[in-house]
Design goal:
The structure is a homotetramer. By secondary structure, the first copy, chain A, is α/β, with parallel strands linked by helices. Helix content of chain A is 43%, strand content 16%. In chain A, strands 7, 8, 9, 10, 11, 12 and 13 form a 7-stranded antiparallel sheet that branches. In chain A, helix 5 crosses helix 15. At the A-B interface, helix 9, helix 15 and helix 16 of A face helix 9, helix 15 and helix 16 of B.
Chain lengths: 465, 465, 465, 465
């Protein structure tokens, strides 16, 4: 039984903390301390209580000692792992990120990765992550850092740029959905029961939320060759892996999508995009799929409003309270998230291959070194080694490069606190296609204004007030 | 006196041939044969006559033997230099290239480099250049090839891709205009007489018609530092180096522009674009400067219609006829073109530094090797060696890369005769931002249809008829 | 049960064939045809008989249909896998490779990889492999090619250079020995039972027979940190993993070694060489460890004479005859070789990580792309994907690069049939340090002369007769 | 007339200062201050006096104000240019560098660049240059730094590594001699008067003192094609460009050589080494040309003893005294050195192409970025831009890479003050081929001991006393 300490930054998380605590509870061979740290300390306290309820559950295999800390450095001290999952600022700021651009005709389906919302979110997040990186460098330089915060690419970049020896990687489950989608394809085209997603071997590469699958096989069968036939049947009405079929009524759930964008992109580029359609469209010229809500509807994906997120969060807090107080029983079962699986591999309990985000050091030879990319990696005893990915089709490579370099420009501008360079990346976002410079600048100013309390300590906002 | 043979492919050129023959006439130290080859043989014959009139002129220093050939191979045989300057197809096809997209709201100021027109022109040109490359490889593999044909990047790429040992470079005078513009800046800001453009030292790099100046100096003075003050005065009304000042009335001349785009880009990116504004705007999201004719007018550049080109050509033919017949006297004087200067350097008469287009072999370390780029090169005895360029600002580098990779995708699709890949590059053109896929495909089909006689021998046009 | 065809080039192998057939026999889930092809057809027939005896054994899980072919193309037809394991020419030529240089004071411990013997062997092997590559390209382009022939690097290079789409990799077990050595270290330093080598996680990279381990761990413990203490105890008398300890008397077995070279190199460079000492020393200036037989003895490794190999082979043939005829019972048990394990992974039966030789496409970012390197790779359903290796220490990287580039020069010279370039690589071999140019040339001439019948069809040997 | 300040570090130079002051005196268009700084202040004072005598000479075109400074920072303050030309430690230490290895059978012809002497000299020089770099960064970050000190590569590396924005380049005249040699070839083979070396166009690349000429032309004629015929005649007896012919008696002058090594290398590699033979041989396995003094004699180059250098220096000091006191008249005439020519180009008085040493940023695409290489560069108004060099033949590229990486390893070890890593580079020097590790270590220890006073402040010499 390995005794470890895991520091959880953002340990007051409303949803993901529960999932993670459950996964830890059912993972054999590890135990120790979960150090919860959150600027919302009561939320961390609540999760501690939920954790203790999980400990008390009969299905629990590994019990953990949940401790809430006031200071980041104390939480990090002696940590073997650090999980980072924060919301930079509040949903009020995210509201500006997502909805202010709409006045200018710019729509976003998510708004936390790229596009105008992604840039503003990055402006708030990078200075916070610079602080995390410095604290890790000082307090627990040998710990493994697992990042879950968006914008994923830029958070991971910050950690490595500030502290090059950091042992960090960014986890995202979007690619799992693509495996599920391929599992449906195998089911339907091969006439077999739907396989477990882990049996679908893929080579995926790109940048977070804009990854592409260049190879997909199931026990010796090439699944990409089956796609044209599958798409013939399903393109028109869409197909959702989460409902095993046609995808007509999404109005109630802004997180769902019919893979119609994915299928359309496959037909054009011969590679299957791995992220969900809601994410993909934000990396492309907005006239294609995200021109306006009606176009989005036609392409069968939802626009996630921040009001929806607020409502959802309120429900989750309510549920957390009930779990913490025992009004509602905890559900101790393994999720589809991979964090605990990767932790075990890092502790020397066997190799695992999974796709995560780390700086390019050869895994995408056509991309500049140092750019954070998402590819398969081999997780092994104290090591994460990227696997060299297949080359992307030229046209796809160009789209990925263009977005990766926008992110690099944005990061560089933020790092240098250079508002002009940040704006250069803002206006070069594919989602901003169609907006004249003067209007783009007006929008930028409005958005900066809306999130000013979180920026003023870091940037010279003269001219933005 | 060096005795050489220069083969002139497209030797029936209506305008550029005259300029070149004049330059040759006033260049000392070289003589020999000019082998004219053109599918329009009478035009070549007419140029031969003009050449002979130039020979007879008293200002002529070097006389040349003008010979018209029926066959390309005969013209190339024994050539030391090959100049290529052709119009792929006719102005009828160019009319489709430039004006068909307008029905879909896509405007082009030139239409021969990138954008929808550039793609179609490339489809016609590459197969022709493949033939040139094969003929050169067989008949005159050691000759220096000087390309003037657009799309410049893709023509140069074809030569090197088909015959990797080719000694080719692409010449374009756009950067000279930027030097003239900087000469005006020096004049106005330093209070000195306008310097000769050759005295303005620059470092320019990028791809043809989308090059950027990262350093510009005049006798120890940094000219880029003077730009903000200069622009303060001239941004509003524009400034044309060709009229030494404000640039209000361009309606008569669709080739002129007020450098307002260039000044706007400088303010955003801190680098001075080197090509003319008409060209620059075609590499950028069309909503910025090329949304429609009114926007173009606001930004002080003209849209060159093909009707204008036809009219202009008719006048040039008329003038050529008069020069050939002696009704009009020839003007033997040196132009600002550099081809003859570069030829002399290649013959071992001293080093010259000039910007030309060749495949990247290190001169732009941030761009993939093999991509055709435009940078300074040292011309010396039988050698053209690229000079390593300053890095471009990140945001500019991204724009250049994105366009360069669109061109690579386009070339690759054409080389493989793969209509889907060509369309992938077509739809990814920045000028196509804002056009939905189905409309883009309809436009592509219309454009292919209009230029079909020049494509059908090379491409499988099933579905495009 | 997957039905496959495996073509075995060099299917008359005296030793390795038996091992492989046994491994196939105990591997569940695969069956089909083993197509034996060998220029020594009786040897192939003999192996077919042994194979059939194995089929008849009660321990056999999977039976295979053994077929002997007269023509390479017939053996390859329809193959899913191709195993290549040949001896280029005979032991007579190998005698010249290994022992002629001794007259000039150049000793070799193996003589089949680099050094003068490696160059001559490459000269004989590459033309043969060019033929294999062309046949594979035509007959079974989608088959997986498993190479076992030395010189490994140059054989693999030839396959990819002649047929870039080839799906080939080179397998070598040298790294396994290093894992065994580390297993001994874990045993002794941690006071635990000797772990299975598969439990030792390593990151190894370099070129075949000159690979280096930059990371080695056993269930969370860093083994490289234990080496200094281990070496303190064992450096003087050496330590052999095959006898679990001190290594004093090797005179009878020229394949054994005491890891004293490996320990010496670790002390100097901080990285553990992964190949056996006999191989390592051939990549280094011969004055270090291979100055003469006495020096080799001092460093506790043997020089494998070709006479020994001949004797060994005669015994093996005798044994094969007895196995084929049933005079001796077959031993059906799994070996430590990994070929069948990798085949299963390629057939989609689960991921495996193992170190093999393929061209660099990013896995060693400090080495030129295209150079054949040995690193960890992920074997998965129809794919071999290299894992990006840790950077080597600068001084080691230089040694690896230098040898890799000698091999590239050698290959390039052979490919171009350019005797001068081959000699340039010959004289630049580290083992040739100390030999003046004229003597080196005399040696080269003698060695070429000795193996002339195998060279004359490919090279212009004027001046070498 | 441009008014500038040039700081001269090592301004007490016995020989080169005079040459430089003369060149400055006859260079029109520049004037100002020469700030002399030297730890041997009287030597600087003496040069000041010589400078003033030059000022007084009638042939002097530009007069300079010579000022001697006590403090480096004062000398640097306001400098536009900084010339660095120092002797690290004294000839006593250089005696150990050059002659201690002889006891171990290791001979050196120069001993200041690579080989055991080069490593020790680097150990003394790098800490000094780190100080220079820090002072320049603080006091005159925009000045152009011209380095003349050996080891050239490692001095230049230090400046850029400590202060990445430094505008530094390293000047060496070795390539000029190769041009002179080629001038002799042109003279003899073409039957023309010996051309001026500036008329010989070359492409040279590599690392300092180990550069290679891949192209050499004289007014349209390929000189490399003439070499075989020239060498046929001169290989046996050698040929020295400095005496226009046969080179039999060098015993009096250890700086001369007969180019026999150069001719031998050309025959093997097809590329002409550009540095003098004395330098070249130090980059190659010592058994080739530098086995012992007799071998050197056979190859027609001299071993420069430090006694000779001491004697030569004493004469130069005597001569300087006489020049300073007026006992001997100054000789005001232009030398063949290019420093003043390059300075003029940097001041905006026209482009110059010359070969200098700067970090690789694309000019040698086959070498790692950041390694200091010597290639042609374009000197222009405030800029030095490298020209992309022809690729070297594979075998030569390997030799260059190997030496460049030894230097990188050496530099890295010195930077990190890591004696083990320094020794790893020491033992990997080609000149050390043939020396067993234990003897190499004994030699290293002796050499470190001999130069200890200059090392002890920087390195942990425990175990070296």
């Amino acid at each position: 039984m390995k005794n470890i300490k895991l520091a959880y930054i953002g340990g007051g998380s409303k949803m993901w903390a529960r999932v993670f605590m459950n996964d830890l509870a059912v993972t054999p061979g590890m135990c120790g301390e979960i150090a919860l740290y959150d600027i919302d300390k009561p939320a961390a306290e609540r999760n501690k209580k939920i954790g203790e309820r999980i400990n008390a559950d009969s299905r629990t295999v590994s019990k953990w000692n949940y401790v809430v800390y006031d200071k980041l450095e104390d939480a990090l001290k002696g940590a073997d792992f650090v999980a980072c999952s924060i919301l930079p600022a509040t949903f009020e700021e995210m509201h500006a990120d997502v909805h202010f651009p709409e006045k200018y005709g710019i729509y976003q389906s998510v708004g936390d990765t790229v596009g105008p919302g992604g840039v503003l979110r990055a402006m708030r997040t990078v200075p916070i992550y610079e602080g995390f990186a410095r604290a890790i460098a000082e307090v627990c330089p040998k710990a493994w850092i697992i990042n879950f915060t968006n914008p994923m690419t830029i958070c991971t970049k910050t950690l490595y740029d500030v502290f090059p020896q950091v042992k960090a990687f960014g986890c995202c489950h979007e690619v799992f959905h693509a495996q599920e989608f391929l599992s449906c394809v195998a089911h339907e085209e091969l006439g077999i029961p739907r396989p477990d997603r882990h049996e679908i071997s893929i080579d995926a590469s790109g940048i977070n939320h804009f990854t592409w699958i260049t190879q997909a096989r199931y026990k010796g069968t090439d699944l990409l060759e089956l796609l044209p036939s599958f798409m013939e049947k399903h393109f028109e009405k869409g197909y959702s892996e989460s409902v095993n079929g046609g995808a007509h009524d999404f109005h109630g759930d802004p997180f769902r999508y019919g893979n119609k964008v994915k299928m359309d992109l496959f037909r054009r580029y011969g590679a299957l995009a791995a992220a969900g359609d809601r994410h993909l469209v934000e990396f492309l010229d907005n006239s294609r799929y995200l021109k306006d809500p009606k176009t989005a509807e036609k392409w069968l994906f939802g626009l996630t409003t921040v009001d929806y997120r607020k409502k959802q969060q309120a429900e989750r807090i309510k549920e957390s309270d009930m779990l913490a107080s025992g009004q509602k029983p905890v559900e101790v079962e393994r999720s589809d998230e991979e964090a605990t699986v990767l932790m075990q591999a890092l502790l020397g309990k066997g190799k695992v291959v999974s796709n995560v985000n780390i700086p390019n050091r050869g895994q995408m030879p056509d991309m500049p070194l140092g750019v954070v990319v998402e590819t398969n990696c081999v997780f092994d005893d104290d090591s994460v080694k990227p696997v060299v990915a297949n080359p992307l089709p030229l046209a796809v490579r160009n789209l990925v490069y263009q977005n990766a370099m926008n992110i690099e420009t944005c990061y560089h501008g933020i790092k240098e606190r250079n508002m002009d360079e940040i704006f250069a990346s803002f206006i070069n976002q594919p989602l901003m296609a169609g907006l004249p410079v003067d209007k783009a600048h007006a929008l930028f100013k409005e958005m900066v204004g809306a999130t000013k309390p979180y920026l003023k300590d870091y940037y010279n906002l003269k001219g933005y007030e």
